Amino acid sequence: PNYQFGVSWAVPAGPARLINQATTCSDPVNPPTLCNSAQLKTSQQLCAILSNNTGPFSECNAVVNPTSWVAGCVKTMCACKGASSCLPPILEAYQQACNDANVT
């Protein structure tokens, strides 16, 4: 895939910004490891809230498939080294997608 268009829209990374994976990945088929195993585990646990069947987004999950959101969340959280301060913008973005799909 050609990531040049997406890279052209990249913004400076920071703890409150979603990280564009294409800006840090020279080989999209075999991306570099962005976090260690402990950070990955923390990232997966934090991002699981998006697809939790009894969580705050459970009603939205049937309308806005959380699978790609969870994967993107884990990548972003890994880029943030598992820092929970990176999670709120991800949750807000998913909530906005739910609102856009008329799910409250």
Radius of gyration: 14 Å
Whole-number mean pLDDT: 78
User: How many DSSP-defined strands?
Assistant: 0
Give the strand content.
under 5%
Which parts are unreliable, with pLDDT below 50 for 5 consecutive residues or more?
12-25
Task: State the distance separating the first and last CA atoms.
Answer: 35 Å
- The helical percent reads 40-55%
Number of helices: 5
Q: Could you give the order of the helices and strands?
A: HHHHH
Q: Could you walk me through the main structural features you see in this protein, from its secondary elements to its overall organization?
A:
With 104 residues, this protein is mainly α. Helices cover 45% and strands 0% of the residues. It has five helices and no strands. It has helices spanning 4-8, 37-47, 58-61, 67-79, 87-100. Helix 2 packs across helix 4.
Task: Put the structure in a nutshell.
The protein is mostly helical. Helix content is 45%, strand content 0%. The protein has helices at residues 4-8, 37-47, 58-61, 67-79, 87-100.
Give me the secondary-structure topology:
Blueprint: H1 4-8, H2 37-47, H3 58-61, H4 67-79, H5 87-100
Helix pairs in contact: 2-4
Main attributes of the structure:
mainly alpha; 104 residues; elongated
